[in-house]
Amino acid sequence: MRIQSAATPPTTAHRQYFLLKAVAVIGVAGLLVGCTANGSNDATSRDTSIVIAENEPPATFDPIQADNSTVDGVVIPAYNSVLTYDDNLELEGELVESWSVSEDGLTLDFKLRDDVVFHDGTALTSTDVAYTLDRIKRIGIGVASYLSAYESSEAISDTEVSVRLNRSDSSFLAALTRVYVLNSALVDENAGSDDGQSWLANNSAGSGPYVLSAYSANQSTMYTKFADYWEGFDGQAETVEFRYLAEPATQSAALSSGDVDIAMDIAPTEWEKFEGTDGFTVDKAGTNVALYVFFNMGDSVTSNPVLREAISYAYDYDQHIDSILYGSGSPMNGPVPTAMKCATDDLTVPTFDLQKAKEIIDTNGLAGTQLTMTFLGALVEMEQAAALLQSNLSEIGVILDLQAITYPQYVEMSLNTETRPQLGMIYAFPAFPDTSAILFQNFNSQTIGGQNWGAYSNPRVDELTSAAQIENDQDVRCDYYVEAQQIITSEFASVNLSNPQHVAVVNERVQGFSYRPWHHQTVDVYDLTLSE
């Protein structure tokens, strides 16, 4: 599961998967020949294909929901974003050659590349960029949470587009790394009654290096190389497959047998086996990801800050790092991962102290409190962390019932106070390496019903995180964010469990894999090549 969504739950249409129609691609029928229920196992095609293991299928193939990493992962091969990051985490153009921002921060002018074509052969123009941004605003889900300052766009020429904001937004350019440009004519032709959401749930309308060619329900997604891709090719695979293997042990076995080339969800206990095996590389990278337990601030029990304080002191953070992550991660020092700008050491954070936690519980008459916590059952770290927290709390007289659910269920439950989990364990996967992607998205009250999973609301935190959104001076932004972190920490709004590394096991026949912190838990398939 890759969590990064402020979207509403997938519609029924999004959950109903069937064979995907390729957009103007020749040879789709041939691609399907030789595919078993588990994907393509044809020996000849395997020599020119890359197979990537995933632990769940996407809720949709619509790029508007690419704030969710599972969706982002399947969008990346078929689309291009407006901007991206270079290896030094500096913004650079993907579909644009250059851009400028007005002095008041309200107008952004972009110069597009003139050599990009969509998969149906039509040229990508500024009209498509404007259409994509306008559609995101109209629908108002997914990546719209990153683009709340967007007002309108004007196509000045085929390669020039001017974007107008309703307020200055220092993170708007970063958010454009999650805006994938749609073939406006094609989507409009299939808009239906929901602005193309049903159609894009099962089709692609992009300009990326690969064309979405087939989907086998809950089993695999297939892509085939787009011959007219503007960047060209040099050793990339002819086909790419995402194969859905829910269990870590199944992914491990598939790696060992050579059925898959890349897996990012195998259990930590298996890493050592592959590190000592010829033919594999275990890639470990630092991340901006954090695993939290968020408290439901609207619940009569978990709204009690004394209870939240006790729970925060009851968790064994070091055991989490040592025994669950096998050292591949670090403790959190507050709500912001330490590698992010504006993270601070000037916080008094809870540490593992059962005696202190029990004293708080006993002094305040909270012994015997019964709580329910939801978590995503498909993820090893969450499952083991949930069990550890349950065990720790039992030692201070708090009874914790565990409920393993799916991500769509989690999203749906979090939409209102009555169904929102008392405690909910969830990752924050920042969509871009800017502190706003944690503090604004997870703790500003404007995002309640989205990524503010616990419905946390503090007027001063709202003021600080909103002010940071429109402030361009990074030092001033950090001052705002440091104060916000101090308040959030003092109110025990979350239990900050871990900052895990990203670990991927890669067959050495595949070259070029690298972790990208702005697209966590995804693979940039265009960067991959096959060794001869």
What attributes characterize this protein structure?
3 domains, alpha+beta, 18 helices, 23 strands, 21% strand, six-stranded mixed sheet, Dipeptide-binding Protein, domain 1, Dipeptide-binding Protein, domain 3, 29% helix, D-Maltodextrin-Binding Protein, domain 2, single chain, 532 residues, seven-stranded mixed sheet
Descriptive notes:
With 532 residues, the chain is α+β, with helices and mostly antiparallel strands. It has three domains: 12-60 and 194-268 and 507-530, D-Maltodextrin-Binding Protein, domain 2, CATH 3.40.190.10; 83-184, Alpha-Beta Complex (Dipeptide-binding Protein, domain 1); 290-500, Dipeptide-binding Protein, Domain 3 (Dipeptide-binding Protein, domain 3, Roll), CATH 3.10.105. The protein is built from 18 helices and 23 strands. The longest helix has 17 residues, at 474-490.
